[in-house]
Amino acid sequence: MTKNGKKVMDEHDISRALKRIAHEIVEDNKGVHDLVFVGIVARGVPIAQRLAKIIQHMEGSKDKIPVGGIDISLYRDDLATKGQYIKVRKSSIPFAIDGETVILVDDVLFHGRTIRAALDGLKDYGRSGKVKLAVLIDRGHRELPIQPDYIGKKVQTTKKEEVSVKLLEVDGIDEVQIG
Fold it and tell me: Does 49 reside within a domain?
């Protein structure tokens, strides 16, 4: 992110947003039964882990809510043109998703292409009962008919602006900047 970036969320804002999303997920799902989280590598995974931990604590559940991660690199629709520049990372979904409610988690929703790729990738792991989308930031400008079910914050951006999400687990700090 450039030095001129405008901070739109700090660690407290992110924490509040994730707690709100967690409450919405529990309310919508009527508890934690048949619930699994799949974060999109890289920053969707720690967000998914945080949400699962918040929900587990809220519900007083002794059982851990399953959390996995999916790398969408090989499911991208621009693989033919950008393939040599794409770094493939490891997916890890060590649980069955058949019949489960999958909460797909990402940091920023923009065009919708990453989510489309993740939905394609999830098919390789089974047939979920439902898939719901949780994002920390929704910046609009969709190119595909994909909308989040749970949003931390909607921000107005131009198509050329960058949204930078930094998370403690990956970057050593929690913040969101636009620049």
Answer: yes
Decide: 160 and 168 in contact? Cβ < 8 Å: no
Cα separation, 123 vs 89, in Å, equals 18
- Number of domains the chain contains: 1
pLDDT digits (tens, 9 = 90+) for 165-176: 999 999 999 999
Closest CA relative to residue 104, chosen from 155, 58, 63, 68: 68
pLDDT at 172 (0 to 100) = 97
3-state secondary structure of 58: helix
Distances (CA, A) of 111 to 39, 62, 114, 140, 179: 18, 38, 8, 7, 18
CA 63, CA 18: separation in Å to the nearest integer? 20
- Enclosing domain of residue 145: 12-160
Predicted structure pTM score: 0.94
Is residue 175 a part of any domain in this protein? Answer: no
Q: Which CATH number does the domain housing residue 76 bear?
A: 3.40.50.2020
* Mean residue pLDDT across the chain: 94
Residues of the chain with pLDDT under 70: 1-3, 82-83
